[in-house]
Amino acid sequence: MSFVADELVKWRDSPAWYDRIDLDEFERLAGIGYEPRQIAMYYHVPENDFLWYFNLVGSPLKYHYERGQLLQRAKEGLAMAASAETGDNVTQAQRFDKFRQATGYRNSINKIFYDDIG
């Protein structure tokens, strides 16, 4: 008897509590730094249940969590870039340079470790 493991861990049906989650608010919570377990508590969802669905292949929860983090970092980066362009704000230019380095480092790590994972 054989089976394909990825068939067991893919997102199929949404759990009953999924409709209670406002995805825009969920993305904002992710963007300001809350962990998935804290967001589960916020929405009054059992932590283990939430994390199970969060970690499934193709999980919309994980997608919206990562999207929320990306949107927040992008907003911060765009604001820093606009301030740094004028050259008047040296501190902002330094922060923007550190931001770019950190983003480049994070992207490199993700490419090295997770590149072949679709």
List the SSEs and their pairings.
Layout: H1 23-31, H2 36-42, H3 47-54, H4 60-86, H5 90-114
Helix pairs in contact: 1-4, 2-3, 4-5
Structure report:
The chain has helices at residues 23-31, 36-42, 47-54, 60-86, 90-114. The chain is mostly helical and 118 residues long. The longest helix has 27 residues, at 60-86.
Can you give me a brief rundown of this structure?
The protein is mostly helical and 118 residues long. It has helices spanning 23-31, 36-42, 47-54, 60-86, 90-114. Helix 4 (60-86) packs antiparallel against helix 5 (90-114).
Biggest sheet features:
none
Structural class: mainly alpha
* Quantity of strands, as a count: 0
Query: In percent, how much strand structure appears in the residues?
Result: under 5%
Rg of Cα set: 18 Å
Overall number of domains: 1
Helix content: 55-70%
List keywords for this structure.
elongated; 118 residues; 64% helix; mainly alpha; 5 helices
